[in-house]
Amino acid sequence: MDVNKTWKRKIIAALGAVFAGTLTFMPFGTAEAGLSEEIPVFESGVRLEAPAEGAEKLLENRTQKKFAYAARAEESFEDYLVSRLYQRQAQINVSSYGITVDAMSDVFYTMLYRHPELYFVSTRLSYSYNPVNGNVTILTVRYLEKTPEERAQNQAKLQEETAKLLAMIDEDMTDLEKIIVVHDYLCLDVEYAYAELQNGTLSDDAHTLKGAVIDKRAVCDGYSNAFTYYMQLLGIPCRMVTGTAQSDHAWNQVELDGKWYLVDLTWDDEVWDDYGYAGHEYFLKDAAYFQQTHAWETSGLEACDDAFYNEGFWNDTDAQMVYHEGGMYFIRNDGKLYRHDFAEDEITEPGTLVAEIGGRWGVVGNENVFYKGNYVKLAARGQKLYYSMPAGIFICGFDGNGQKQFLAADTSQGYVYGMKLTGDALYYQTAEMAHAETRAVYESRIDAAHSMEKAEITLSQTGFPYNGEEQYPSVTVKMDGLTLEENRDYKLTWSYPLGGIGTAAFAVSGIGDYEGTAVGTYQITEPEEGEQPGDGETNPGGDENKPGEDGNPGEGGNKPGEDGSPGGDESDSGGDGTNLGEDGNQPGGSETNPGGNEPQPGGSRPGENVDPPRGNQPSGNTSGSGMDSKPKPASVKAPAKVKKLSVKASSPRKVRVSWKKQSCDGYRIQLSLQANFKKIAKTVTVRGGKSAKKTVSGLKEKKKYYVRIQAYRQVNGKRVYGTFSKKVKVRTK
């Protein structure tokens, strides 16, 4: 048994991870007629408010209910709600959707599970509803960013970090290679917030995408949200899973080539930040493997019953793996540098030996005794690999040649156990032993003549008024007076603001002799007065209040507090002075007042005479409760078979694939050295249905490949694939 792993698990067992909002308990609420009720929130397993009658049953069934919306609700409602949350609207009219009070908490919180980018939305929710049919009419949402400046700062940072990560993704990567890059990057980039857990200062942000990507300190659900966020951007279906692993815990399941696997970023990272560490013990495993240490309710989740990757070559490394020109470079635990080629090597085999690295870590104070194991860390920049040794940092080429010392480490506080590259800076850690809490940190600059951090980068314009479409400026990159050429000297990667307004970011990454990545931003501003951007889609929610600045209600609405919540009594968002509908009545519902003095939504109190609500009754079956109050969507039809597939060898180890474009959300290309496709040599996913060509690289030279393609549609995070095309054969150059 690995003593270090055992030690780590004992530490994690003592954490007692804290969950915010819905990760531990699904919120619930009961509402008196016509009043807005706040849904109780649970933290650390302690109920903050007394449960309503029948709440215990809901809590008991919370896991089964958690994903009900993902399977049964209409996507149009989610799109409608998410778009208004992006705009920070404080009050959202949902009267046309016929969602009951009993179902709303499940709908809202499942939506937050599926959209980690909504980290700024509070887990506390208030609502008004129609007492005649029990349907929610107005949602009142709190936002966690207290000022416009805080909002802008967070958005800009998120876009910059996103652009940096996406710049690491090569267009020729397979989904597996993308998953590896994101997994290892997050293990390096995010620090587990163990100290805050110990001293009781853990922030709510540590549970969110913001904690992991912006603050870079998070706990399990923060890691899981970040992984989900990046997978969704890359078009790879991914979900959060919640359960227990010695304490309340969160991890992920991710789809790869039509099958689902489990990933636990938190358990693959170190408790104390260890530069360059990326474990793979809980990476792409099946459910049987996870069930040895994890427990969860499988209802509503995909089956993870494929063990193909359980014995993947990455099990033999606890350091970051580096992708370069179709190969994955990694340091095995025996200290040897390998290059794994997914097109040539079995998934369980390390691949080609590149160099003997070696290294022995001695016990401080007893130089004749050495620790068992290897603690080499690996990183890359430009055409060089950087790796750590006990007393220094070394470099070599990707072919293993040119090994030499880059710097001699300061070993006064111990030996080198950690190393990472960030921009033009190289950081390394020394300690008396591996996994130590106390470490000395040192920084050294990489003086590269052709570093993108030194380039002069200018934009054709630094801002655009929002017009409903994505807008990108022209980018000019100069170095030493020479204008560089895109796709020859550098590549551009873009990160566009969610919701279309705010900060957009771009990354300029060096190619060939140019190295490093520089990040910049530009602005998408509110449309000019009088303009109506967009596609003319009508508002499916009825007459919605016009939001003011920061998404607050406009004229006639309550003045929100600093946290974006409505002013006045929080439990009465429909109180006096709130104009949620014409004449003070809540929109939605056409029935007359059945009880005379029974209150109606919109702020009336029991005993007051009110006019009947105006407008039309929400459509759909309103009897019963839960998601059964909405009709189930029609089953999704698989896309048609792809036609006119053509494959040509374009250059050594590359082929050019083209096909007839059709209506779909993307395509999956498979290549095999066998006509029956019993073993897949490479799988490439093409996101979006507008493309009709793709260059596939990283193949074997002068080999005959069989190629096929299928289209897919993506619904509720799951891909529905069509039939494969006819296979085409090609011989590489």
Describe the structure.
The protein is of the alpha+beta class and 733 residues long. Among the domains are: 17-144 and 545-616, no CATH class; 453-525; 646-731, Immunoglobulins (Immunoglobulin-like, Sandwich), CATH 2.60.40.10. The strands form 12 sheets. The protein has a 5-stranded antiparallel β-sheet with strand order 12-11-10-9-13. α8 runs antiparallel to α11 (220-233) and α10 crosses α11 (220-233). Mean pLDDT is 77; it is low at 1-75 and 532-634.
Question: Which key terms come to mind for this protein?
Answer:
733 residues; alpha+beta; Immunoglobulin-like; five-stranded antiparallel beta sheet; disordered N terminus
Distance between the termini: 47 Å
Q: Strand count, sense and closure of the main sheet?
A: 5 strands, antiparallel
* Computed structural class: alpha+beta
> What is the radius of gyration?
28 Å
Mean pLDDT: 77
Runs in which pLDDT lies below 50 for 5 or more consecutive residues are 1-75, 532-634
Helix count, DSSP H or I runs of 4 or more residues = 13
Which strands sit side by side, in order, in the main sheet? 12-11-10-9-13
- State the helicity in percent bands: 10-25%
Number of beta-strand segments:
41
Proportion of strand residues: 25-35%
Backbone shape: globular
